[in-house]
Amino acid sequence: MAQIKNIEGMTIDELNRELERGGKFVIFQYCFSIIIMTFKHGSDIYFIRAGESTVKHSIGYTLLTFVFGWWGFPWGPIHTIGALFTNLTSGKDVTQEVINSFNKQE
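Request: output the structure for the sequence above.
Response:
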């Protein structure tokens, strides 16, 4: 499983309380292109607390994609638009997958 960021120092009880209040686990997407090759990847998983903005976590991936994503043909523009949309709409919510993974480990 990918590393989970932004949970440092939190107990399981604190994490559960945040999830009940609307916290979520998300990943951000990024892509970069080199002429005819385009690479699209997901970030590590980030825990976003209830009411917390995702911008500080997504800005690096968004800028990387905005600058380097377009240049591959034909997939560069397609993947760039998709990654930018995902990041600008708070990332891809993977909360249920993470919870299911935790439950399997118990």
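The two ends are 15 Å apart (CA to CA).
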